Structures are given as C-alpha cells and as structure tokens.
Amino acid sequence: MKELPPAFRSIPSGGELLEALDGAFGRHRGWIQATGFVDDIELRLGSEGADVRRTFRGRFALAALGGPLGGPYGATLSRLSGDKVEVLAGVLVRARSGGVQALCISAGDAPSRVLAEIPGVDELALPAQNPGFAKRPLVSAFAAKVGVARPAPDEAAEEPTPERGDLVEHFAFGICEVLSVTGDRLTLRDSRGQGRTREIALERLSVNGPVEHEGRRLFRLSRR
Questions:
Q1: Buried (b) or exposed (e) across 181-196, using 16+ Cβ within 10 A?
Q2: Residue 174, beta-bridge partner list
Q3: Cis omega (within 30 of 0) on the bond before 119?
Q4: What does the pLDDT look like over 182-195, one tens digit per residue?
Q5: Which residue from 91, 93, 215, 216 could staple onto 42, CB 3.0 to 4.6 Å apart?
Q6: What is the CATH topology of the domain spanning 8-105?
Q7: pLDDT single digits (tens) 38-91
Q8: 187: which strand partners?
Q9: Residue 184 to residues 22, 56, 98: CA-CA distances in angstroms?
Q10: Where are the domains of the chain?
Q11: CA distance 188 to 92
C-alpha cells in the first residue's frame, strides 16, 4: 500500500479541531486544507459594526477549510435541515472534530510544474502585511529545484512572541490582552465578562502567529 505523504493527517473524532490541527502538524509551516465532519461550531462573521461570533449546535459537513497553520481558518459548512440544505461560511473559531482529513502545503511541497503553468511566477505571492508580521522567508519550488538554499536555522529571523499590548487567543480563556511579560510568563486580561486577570506560562504552550486582529497582533496559544 502506498504511504500517505508526511503532511497529510487524519484528525479523529471527539477533540477540539483547531487544537488537533496544531498538534498534528507540529512545527510545519504552510497552508492548511481540510474536509470532513464537525460538531458544535463557533464562527466569526462580518457585520455592519464589529465582527460577531455565533455558535451553531449539531453536526455539519466541513465542505472546505483553509488558512495558514495556526489560523485564522475560513470555513464553509453545510447540513440538511428538513428538505433544505443549510450552508454557513465564516472564520472558524472552534469546533469538535467528527472525523477530518487535513493537508499542510508548504512552499517546498508545491510541484514545480504547477508554478510553471503560471507565467511569470517564481515565488509564492503572499498578502502584504504590517512590519513584523512576515518574518519567515519562503523559497519557491523553482528556487529549490535549481539549488537556492534555505536560510540556516541560525540565520533565520527569530520567531515573534507576545509582547505587552498584543492579543492572545487562549484555548480555554478566548481572546485576552497581554498586560505584562516576565520571562516566559504572561499576565493576561480576559476580554470577556468582568475582565479577569490571569497569569500563564508559555513553556507548556504552543505559540502560533501572529495574525492581525483589529489593528493589533494576535497570537494563538494551544496545548503542546
């Protein structure tokens, strides 16, 4: 039987999908694509004012999920409601896996023939980002083929970590503001409820990101 490619993972039923994606792909860097089934989802939806979150109970077919590893992930979901098909789309905040197949695609994994079919393409184009957000250089499939070396580990830019004033999305507490940083310990203020202050240690967490959220850096924290 032919072996599955290293960047392909099956996410079993029962656990939190986004945490499972982080754990399944470890230190991969790339774009996640996934499909399968999920339960009890929460979506972030655009509105005329601030973005809103909505929870939808029950089982959905995950028709498509895509985004950079660590999020944010855009998702299209559907389910049968009576004689009609209900379709939802938005940024997936959380969901329980009901059996999901996922693939992590990095720049080096892209077949050179695919890039060759697009005139003038040498490197993968990324959306423009604010300074400090793009610190991970990519090497195109063509560059890899002709022998352009990737930066050595000690030459690569240092990965950013949360600082005072940044936002973090904690797997249990949701989105919080970073009030202070002392070594590997963060003091956070919960953005929900009464603004409870919490202290956490990063040594037992995986830090992904950042992405931009409402004009600020947002990091995603998940269990290792």
A1: eeeeebbbebeeeeee
A2: 170
A3: no
A4: 988 999 888 776 67
A5: 93
A6: 60s Ribosomal Protein L30; Chain: A; (3.30.1330)
A7: 999 999 898 887 788 889 999 999 999 998 888 889 999 999 988 899 999 999
A8: 180, 199
A9: 20, 36, 35
A10: 8-105, 167-223
A11: 23
Model pLDDT for residues 114-164, shown as the tens digit of each residue:
444 444 444 444 444 444 444 444 444 444 444 545 555 554 456 788 999
Residue pair 24/10 in contact by the 8 Å Cβ criterion: no
Q: Are 77 and 95 in contact (CB under 8 A)?
A: no
In whole angstroms, give the CA distance from residue 209 to residue 132. 11
CB 91 within 8 A of CB 73: yes
Task: Give the C-alpha separation, 75 to 35, whole Å.
Answer: 9
Structure-token pair, residue 172: 């249990």
Q: In whole angstroms, what separates CA 109 from the centre of its chain? A: 18
What tokens does 199 get? 């202290």
C-alpha triplet 89, 94, 96: angle, nearest 5°: 105
Interatomic CA distance for residues 42 and 18, integer angstroms: 12
What is the full DSSP assignment across 26-56? TT--SEEEEEEEEEEEEEEE--SSS-EEEEE
Residue 121 tokens read as 């393409």
Q: What is the 3-state secondary structure (H, E, C) of 75-136?
A: EEEEEEECCEEEEEEEEEEEEEEEEEEEEEECHHHCCHHHHHCCCCCCCCCCCCCCCCCCCC
